[in-house]
């Protein structure tokens, strides 16, 4: 019997055993029926992962190391991956880097290694093949950006777009001052392994976010937030029109600034549709002490007109903050997106509303609540990764988003937290790489090159 003669239900069952990363994508190109079935399988796996995320049913495994994988959750022996003990080319420990998934690989670019005596900066490119589970330092051609951290990286098909960044003179993770703040934009062609410069921004930025919006007649790079070369919050959205020449090289053809009344950094940014962007959270300067920074818990939509010459800023409501009993993720800039939800793996802390000198609360501005001390098992739990989920299913109809409670938080035996790490969705699992961790012996922050793979437990696990 030919495969094409099999019942659709049986064919779907067979194809469900294929790898989501590569094999399922290849099978989807066979015919329209297989494409329909593969899309259905993909959506089902994402839905299953999301349902287990709500329960906190995760398996944390350290991978990409020189030895066997280490599991951070009880899991049957047959479920543990087989990692070769062969020595691999592993990236140096780093923070403030970026990770992007393309094809069957996770690409890691740039960042800095925080040390007590200062920081070293990177402009290298590493690739982690999720199928072979091996690292490779990518040999590139062309002229890469100078070493830097706190850049923003977004992907447009097979091209990475790297913008801004800085080199700081201060120790560890201090925000100010920065010695060099960049305004150049570089492109990296993944298939050709080629670097090239494609223009400059109207203003230098770091700690910002960028995203590409594709329409039928234009491709636009949108940058929000961050700090400028004067170490002040950027109060504008920069919109860059991209063009492609005959040889397939991208460049900036025109740029413009649009006022943005909600300056911030360390924020989250997600595409809602081809002309709408969600901006959430982040940090801002304390209005009374410009040397300090406050936590923002507000959100807004940026809706562009057809020509992207102007935009409408719409404040939206954020519900469900009580779901985490006063806890809040330490930083919300990095997430994995599944459908219409953002999943954060972060350290948590207590926050309280910022009050002015006369006792008046600042709306949407919060600071760390150092007076509220953890009790009981919270003392143990506070040093480990927590899971936070922000949902925006009905954002365009209700102009609101909601935090969703997670049943087990943090997941059992999750690893100790890091900050300034990067999270990336790969098929039906999530990877977390790098970041700044607290050395348990010296109690001094240092950069990490740990790579964790997060799988959802099967639905019948209890």
Structural summary, described in words:
There is one protein chain. By secondary structure, the protein is mainly beta. Helices cover 10% and strands 42% of the residues. The protein contains 5 helices and 37 strands. The strands form 9 sheets. Strands 20-21-24-25-32-31-28-27 form an 8-stranded mixed β-sheet. The protein has a 5-stranded antiparallel β-sheet with strand order 2-1-37-34-33. β18 and β19 (250-259) form a beta hairpin. The chain is globular, with a radius of gyration of 22 Å. Residues 66-87 and 171-175 have low confidence and may be disordered.
Tally of helical segments: 5
Strands across the major sheet, in which order? Answer: 20-21-24-25-32-31-28-27
> What's the total count of β strands?
37
The description of the largest β-sheet is: 8 strands, mixed
Distance between the termini: 40 Å
Strand content: 35-45%
Query: What is the C-alpha radius of gyration, as a whole number of Å?
Result: 22 Å
What structural class should be given to the helix and strand makeup? mainly beta
Low-pLDDT sequence parts = 66-87, 171-175
Mean pLDDT: 82
| Range of helix content | under 10%
Shape annotation: globular
């Amino acid at each position: 019997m030919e495969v094409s003669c099999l019942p659709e239900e049986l064919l779907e069952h067979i194809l469900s055993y294929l790898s989501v990363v590569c094999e399922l994508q290849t099978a989807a190109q066979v015919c329209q029926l297989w494409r329909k079935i593969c899309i259905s399988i993909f959506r089902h796996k994402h839905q299953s992962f999301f349902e287990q995320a709500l329960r906190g049913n995760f398996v944390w495994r350290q991978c990409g190391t020189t030895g066997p994988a280490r599991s951070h959750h009880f899991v049957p022996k047959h479920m543990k991956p087989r990692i070769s003990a062969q020595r691999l080319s592993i990236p140096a420990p780093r923070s403030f880097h970026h990770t992007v998934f393309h094809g069957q690989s996770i690409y890691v670019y740039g960042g800095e290694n925080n040390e007590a005596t200062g920081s070293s900066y990177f402009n290298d490119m590493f690739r982690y093949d999720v199928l072979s589970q091996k690292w490779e330092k990518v040999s590139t051609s062309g002229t890469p950006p100078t070493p830097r951290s706190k850049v923003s990286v977004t992907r447009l098909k097979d091209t990475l777009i790297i913008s801004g960044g800085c080199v700081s003179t201060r120790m560890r993770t201090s925000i100010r001052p920065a010695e060099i703040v960049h305004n150049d934009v570089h492109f990296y062609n993944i298939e050709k392994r080629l670097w090239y410069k494609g223009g400059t921004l109207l203003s230098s930025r770091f700690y910002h976010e960028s995203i590409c919006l594709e329409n039928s007649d234009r491709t636009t790079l949108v940058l929000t937030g961050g700090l400028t070369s004067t170490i002040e919050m950027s109060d504008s959205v920069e919109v860059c029109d991209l063009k492609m020449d005959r040889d397939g090289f991208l460049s900036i053809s025109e740029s413009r600034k649009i006022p943005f009344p909600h300056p911030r950094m360390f924020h989250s940014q997600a595409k809602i549709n081809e002309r709408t962007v969600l901006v959430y959270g982040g940090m801002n300067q304390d209005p009374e002490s410009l040397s300090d920074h406050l936590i923002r818990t507000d959100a807004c939509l940026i809706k562009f007109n057809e020509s992207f010459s102007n935009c409408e800023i719409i404040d939206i409501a954020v519900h469900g903050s009580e779901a985490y009993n006063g806890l809040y993720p330490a930083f919300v800039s990095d997430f994995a997106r599944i459908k219409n939800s953002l999943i954060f793996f972060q350290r948590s802390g207590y926050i309280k509303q910022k009050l002015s000198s006369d006792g008046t609360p600042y709306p949407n501005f919060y600071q760390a609540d150092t007076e509220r001390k953890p009790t009981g098992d919270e003392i143990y739990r506070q040093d480990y990764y927590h899971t936070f989920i922000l949902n925006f299913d009905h954002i365009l109809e209700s102009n609101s988003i909601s935090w969703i409670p997670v049943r087990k938080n943090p997941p059992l035996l999750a690893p100790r937290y890091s900050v300034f790490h990067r999270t990336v969705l790969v098929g039906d699992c999530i990877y977390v790489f790098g970041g700044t961790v607290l050395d348990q012996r010296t109690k001094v922050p240092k950069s990490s090159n740990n790579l964790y793979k997060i799988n959802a437990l099967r639905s019948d696990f209890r």
